[in-house]
Amino acid sequence: MKVLLLGGTGEARALAAALHPEIEVISSLAGRVPDPALPVGPVRIGGFGGVDGMRQWLIDERVDAVVDATHPFAATITAHAAQVCAALGLPHLVLARPAWTPGDAILVGSDTEAAETVAANGYARVFLTTGRSGTRAFKDVDAWFLIRAVTPPDPDTLPVDHQLLLSRGPYEYDGELALLREYRVDALVTKNSGGAMTEPKLRAAETAGVPVVMVDRPPLPAGVCAVATVEEAVDWVRAETAG
Ligand code: NAP
């Protein structure tokens, strides 16, 4: 039994650790960050070259099953895996961590809508946490942005008035609250990524009375089998192996 584990998340690393070395798992990373946190076991890095590239790779490597544990907003790779596995008849599972409960957040469908919401509400000092690929939509919004990302966004995508904060979670409630106060933030923009590592900013925003603009998740491809926890994914892989 050989499993391709599409990764780049803490859940993917936990799943690789739970299965290795009992089951042959090859983790795949996009290669977006220069020093990625590596899972245990074999790792390949870089895109497959679209749907056709992934299909050929799965055939060449004689993969028996695919688990997609990528980030909930990594919609392209998730769509590719669903399409290719359906075409090849490969067992396929999506491990999608539970979304956050939006509470009083203003829910929007995209980065563009989030930027429109910031402008429409006249927010002036925005904590922008949508990642390096999420800054372009805010480029022309007339506000000051505290932009937190793991790696620097392309300078062409940045709003004029900003400060860059390069860091990687997990984050703590106290630190998040201090950040909101230190920078006198009047709005937080976030994706609904879910998970505990970056959730403290939501509680800090609630304490500080800072409104939250939350980008809703892209839907999963129709008909895919999905679980919410690493434990369920482990069970699924073991059941596939046994079968
Ligand atoms: P994406 O938009 O869904 O994928 C874009 C392209 O990147 C894919 O078509 C694929 O290239 C390549 N790719 C993505 N994930 C890959 C993987 N695990 N292994 C091999 N190739 C991969 O994804 P993204 O938003 O760029 O995210 C890239 C990675 O960062 C993912 O592994 C994801 O888990 C992680 N991540 C994403 C976010 C986010 O907010 N999007 C946040 C944190 C971490 P080809 O078409 O050439 O195969």
Brief write-up:
The protein is an alpha/beta fold and 243 residues long. The chain has 7 helices and 12 strands. Strands 3-2-1-4-5-12 form a 6-stranded parallel β-sheet, with helices on both faces.
How far the N terminus sits from the C terminus, by CA atoms, comes to: 10 Å
Largest sheet: 6 strands, parallel
What is the CATH C-level name of the largest domain? Answer: Alpha Beta
- Rg, rounded, reads 19 Å
> What best-fitting shape do the alpha-carbon axes yield?
elongated
Average pLDDT number: 97
CATH architecture of the largest domain: 3-Layer(aba) Sandwich
The share of residues in helices is 25-40%
Number of strands: 12
Count of discrete domains: 2
CATH homologous superfamily descriptor of the largest domain? NAD(P)-binding Rossmann-like Domain
Task: Give the topology.
Blueprint: E1 2-6, H1 10-19, E2 24-29, E3 43-45, H2 50-60, E4 65-68, H3 75-88, E5 92-95, E6 106-108, H4 111-121, E7 125-128, E8 144-149, E9 162-166, H5 173-182, E10 187-191, H6 200-208, E11 212-215, E12 225-227, H7 230-242
Parallel strand pairs: 1-2, 1-4, 2-3, 4-5, 5-12, 6-11, 7-8, 7-10, 8-9, 10-11
Helix pairs in contact: 1-7, 2-3, 5-6
The protein binds NADP nicotinamide-adenine-dinucleotide phosphate.
Task: Give an overview of the whole structure.
With 243 residues, this protein is an alpha/beta fold. It folds into two domains: 2-98 and 219-242, 3-Layer(aba) Sandwich (Rossmann fold); 106-215, Rossmann fold. It is built from seven helices and twelve strands. It has helices at residues 10-19, 50-60, 75-88, 111-121, 173-182, 200-208, 230-242, and strands at residues 2-6, 24-29, 43-45, 65-68, 92-95, 106-108, 125-128, 144-149, 162-166, 187-191, 212-215, 225-227. It has a six-stranded parallel β-sheet with strand order 3-2-1-4-5-12, with helices on both faces. Strand 10, helix 6 and strand 11 (212-215) form a beta-alpha-beta unit. The longest helix has 14 residues, at 75-88. The chain is elongated, with a radius of gyration of 19 Å. The mean pLDDT is 97. Bound molecules: NADP nicotinamide-adenine-dinucleotide phosphate. NADP nicotinamide-adenine-dinucleotide phosphate (NAP) is lined by residues 6-9, 28-30, 32, 47-50, 53-54, 70-71, 73-77, 80, 131.
